[in-house]
Design a protein that fits this description.
This protein is α/β, with parallel strands linked by helices and 509 residues long. The chain contains 17 helices and 14 strands. The longest helix has 29 residues. The structure holds S-adenosylmethionine (SAM).
Length: 509
């Protein structure tokens, strides 16, 4: 019996260190905070009256659990996370580091000492503005958060175990969790005492057992209990069952964010090597598409494709001069053969010259129309043929605010006229192909802060333009990214021939 017991002991006690060893360690500062939390004289602090409760080093959830919560936050694209029971803030810090710049962790904590202990660490880690510590009993804090209308993508329950049921009810009943969110519950096994008490009376294990049973019976949620550390349970909202229309369930059971996903779609972007095109390539790739970056400049096309591949987006670079029909066809053929299809085409390549109408040379007019108008049409034609055959496609052309007004004071008649023509091409193709599964739309950005406006002629005008824009700033390429994903996705399935203006209000004055 003894060797068996020893064997079981080694297996059980070796698990956590091994999991730590084979998982990515926390950031150095998080690791330092964990160590400081573990070696802190908690008994003395309590004896001195600096903590209300006798805190223990075991309260610290540690590296692995911090990474677990941070990983779930990333998988869920979370922006707001609630932690009920912060202790010294090791998980708080790990999650804050994983959130985007405007993300927030709200941490409920009853001990003032913990707020003061953790604050310098949050500051040193540069995440202090992402962490909002709410002092007081969590039950009251949850009421306050509900009254403030706060919503969380993820909640981590890790405070007093006897309070779990009440916290859970508040989270669910006040809709503190968004529909696609999750509640993560720590200590759901209580060292096994939830399923095997060994004859020992344990109030906390009883409370967790009751909690586990309550949640399991709650028809609003799905529950996954994991034997990880002291037991971690993941609770997610169950899709509504019964007779419901598509407004309630989402079209074909896709919620609105799922309808924006581009998984298994193939996109090409002309002029993808820089500026707006490069941002479009990233945006479509982030939304799930494989991306062909097309540019006349092989180097920039390759650089963007490498950036995308580095982010885990399947991408190729294609060099093409789209002013020639044969090149446009080769571009489409290359994308289809190398990426396995073509579902989305963003015709974005364009040029601009600045000259007064009376001084505009014929060559400039021809070059502008050759690329911005004829080249764009030739692209649409080659892409359209492929998409018509498959009965599905999204074509998005880059027009310009110049299609809607005459930008000034710069003079650019050829550009303005070429972009107005892009709108008419878009409307015509949108109408011609509407009944065959294709949508054709265009986007008209206002003045975008790219290399194109850094020319000697345009650069000095930036200040003047800003006075013409109600929002008081130029567009950044990232301002255009969500719109391109929307236009490329099934979320825009009833929109065709449309010119979507993103101008910061420039067209309003
Ligand atoms: C297990 S520790 C939290 C560990 C932390 N989540 C982590 O990942 O390291 C529990 C914390 O909950 C706090 N706490 C206990 N009862 C509370 C209550 N009613 N309201 C708010 N916080 C509470 C304790 O002071 C303690 O710091």
């Amino acid at each position: 019996m003894r060797p068996l017991v020893e064997h079981a002991y080694k297996l059980a006690s070796g698990l956590d260190p091994y999991l730590d060893a084979i998982s990515t360690p926390p950031s150095q500062i998080c690791q330092d905070l964990i160590e400081a939390s573990l070696r802190h004289p908690w008994a003395d602090e309590h004896k001195q009256g600096r903590t209300q409760f006798l805190q223990k080093r075991e309260c610290c959830a540690g590296a692995l659990e911090g990474r677990f919560i941070a990983t779930l936050a990333k998988l869920n694209n979370a922006k707001t996370v609630l932690e009920v029971g912060m202790f010294t803030g090791t998980t708080t810090l790990a999650v804050a580091q994983a959130l985007p710049d405007d993300g927030k962790v709200v941490a409920c904590e009853i001990e003032e000492f913990m707020r003061d202990f953790s604050q310098p660490w949050f500051e040193r880690a540069g995440v202090a503005d992402k962490v909002d510590v709410r002092l007081g009993p969590a039950s009251e804090t949850l009421d306050t958060l509900a009254a403030e209308g706060k919503r969380f993508d993820l909640a981590f329950l890790d405070a007093d175990k006897t309070g779990y049921l009440s916290y859970y009810k508040k989270l669910m009943d006040h809709n503190l969790i968004v529909p696609s969110g999750a509640i993560i519950v720590d200590n759901s096994l209580m060292k096994g005492r939830t399923y095997y008490s060994g004859g020992v009376k344990d109030e906390m294990a009883d409370a967790i057992r009751d909690f586990n049973e309550y949640v399991r019976q709650d028809s609003r949620v799905d529950v996954l209990a994991l034997p990880f550390r002291d037991g971690v349970t993941i609770i997610t909202r169950r899709p509504q069952s019964g007779e419901q229309d598509e407004v309630a369930t989402g079209a074909a059971h896709n919620n609105v964010l799922q309808r924006m996903k581009l998984n298994n779609k193939v996109a090409l972007i002309t002029g993808g090597g820089q500026g707006i095109g490069r941002a479009f390539a990233h945006a479509l790739g982030e939304a799930g598409a494989a991306v062909a970056v097309v540019d006349i400049n092989a180097k920039t096309a390759q650089a963007t494709a490498e950036e995308l591949n580095g982010k885990g987006i399947r991408s190729i670079a294609v060099t093409a001069d789209i002013t020639k029909a044969k090149e446009c066809q080769r571009m489409v053929d290359t994308v289809v053969s190398e990426l396995g299809g073509l579902d989305i085409a963003v015709n974005n390549a364009g040029i601009n010259f600045n000259n007064a109408a009376e001084d505009t040379p014929e060559s400039e007019w021809d070059m502008t129309f050759n690329l911005n108008t004829k080249g764009l049409f030739l692209c649409c034609q080659a892409e359209g043929k492929h998409m018509l055959q498959q009965g599905y496609g999204r074509i998005i052309n880059t027009a310009s605010m110049a299609s809607l007004l005459v930008p000034h004071p710069q003079k650019q008649i050829a550009y303005n006229a070429s972009k107005a023509a892009v709108v008419k091409i878009t409307e015509t193709l949108g109408a011609e192909w509407a009944d065959r599964g294709l949508t054709v739309n265009c986007m008209s950005p206002g003045i975008v802060n790219t290399a194109l406006i850094q020319s000697d002629a345009l650069k000095p005008l930036a200040k003047e333009w800003i006075t013409q824009i109600p929002m008081g700033r130029l567009a950044e390429v990232t301002d255009l990214e969500a719109a391109i994903v929307f236009m490329a996705s099934d979320a825009s399935s009833f929109m065709t021939g449309h010119n979507l203006a993103l101008t910061g209000g420039h067209t309003l004055w």
